[in-house]
Predict the structure.
Amino acid sequence: MSTIRGKAAIVGIGEVPTGMYPDRSFIDAAISVSADAIKDAGINKNDIDTVIPIGVVANSLDNANMVCSWVVEELGLGSVAKSNFQLMSGGSSSANALKVATALVTTGLSKAVLVVHSDRMGTGLDLNAAITMFAKASISQEYEAPFGFSQLALAGMLQQRYMYDTGTTERQIASVVESLRKWAMLNPNAMMKKERSADEVVDSPMLSSPVRKRMMNILADGAAAFIVTTKERADDMTDTPAYILGMGSRCTNFTVTAQPTNIIKAWGPAAKEAYEMASVGPKDIGVAELYDAFPTFILISMEILDLCKRGEAGKFVEDGHTSPGGKLPVSTNGAMMAQGHTGAGGGVAILVEAARQIMGKAGERQVKDVKYVVETASGGVGMDFHVGILGREV
Amino acid sequence: MTQTNEYTKPLPLITGLSKIFWDGCKENKLLYQECKDCGEVIFFPKMFCTNCMSQNLGWKESKGKGKIHTFTVTYDMAPPEFMPHVPYALAIIALDEGFRFMSNIVECDFDKISCDMPVEVVFERATDEITLPKFRPTNGN
Ligand SMILES: [Zn+2]
């Protein structure tokens, strides 16, 4: 069977700070991160022949305009672009975009693909969009809506069962927040740059048991972009390509009621396939850039990826192993809990951070001698699970 | 306009398929589907069997007993229509017949709810048209 292992790479990345930026326009953010990614790659912008904008949540007109090739016009790609199409699978859009971009360049259908996300969830959130996104999307209107489900309740139900199955303590889950905040303090693009101890998290009010207030993410404005091209072009273009070595995914459900009872088992094959394709094992991983939305999901992901034994992820985090200086740095941008929740952008930020660590461009939070990074993403109410492995060498 | 007991929470979307389920609830019956060709238990109700794609699906009545797979008690930041009703317990119930259902846990001390706790259905009238299946801890047998 043919494989994409090492045949494509992320060659450039761009990102603006995540947070509350009422004066930063949607399109200015989208174009500046695209320009930064082009500059970072050292690519001629006219080599970009496919633009993939990620779905915009906060404003439906911005979303429609991105569908209609706004970025192609703004970047002056009108004489070279072959395609502009939106990709949207919520939180997993990053992974699906990486998959599509890799397929396009490795088959020769495209020379270079620009994936760009911008959203204004912090200061530009339209009320109807907010209600649709957080109170209605991914919920069965026939059978679930009458009972008071929400994204917060989702976090509560997931954490409840995880604690029951594994004996993980509340403080261990709170430690995830502490660890992410420590990373965010080193990330100029993060929103929540203040230290937050696990004890402070545990002392915060209960919102939807067992989820407490300080286990929640905060909606924010943000934008990020990355460029994918073939290995051959990457090698000509840059000294620091992040080679795409493996990917695996599973898409299991629409509603949480229909989510597999054992998600670790159901999504496990996604990790197995990614590791096998990359010829890399959990012990080779230098940094794990794990998608969160809420802290328990990071612990579950660590177990799916076999970075910890079943039920031991919480203790591993509480012991400081995922924090700066720890033996397995996790989510070094602070993830959505600390960098901020930008709609479908949380996964894009995590993927960009994975590439950044491989490229050696992570500044104060750069992890030394990183050869392999694993990154994850998930959309909907936990509808899917995606694993990607990036490497410094093929 | 002085009606005080008007139901203000969201009601289920009624479609050709969901009407059969909700009509069942009105008669205090919790219905689910079973494929007559392959025996697959199907819920939420579907047009096609999720195992064999057959359209030969029949409705069966659940005994309404099962266990709580997971739950959460919401104290704050609930959807707007539910804010006047906090705290409330929301759960995914694994029914003995092999399907899952999302509902509220009622008639109990919320601090005593746990995963895998046995529960049984209890029907609560919401409007003339809609009766909601909710669940309470099973006492004894
Ligand atoms: Zn069947």
Observations:
- The helical segments of chain B are 16-26.
- The CA atoms of residues 48 and 55 of chain B lie 5 Å apart.
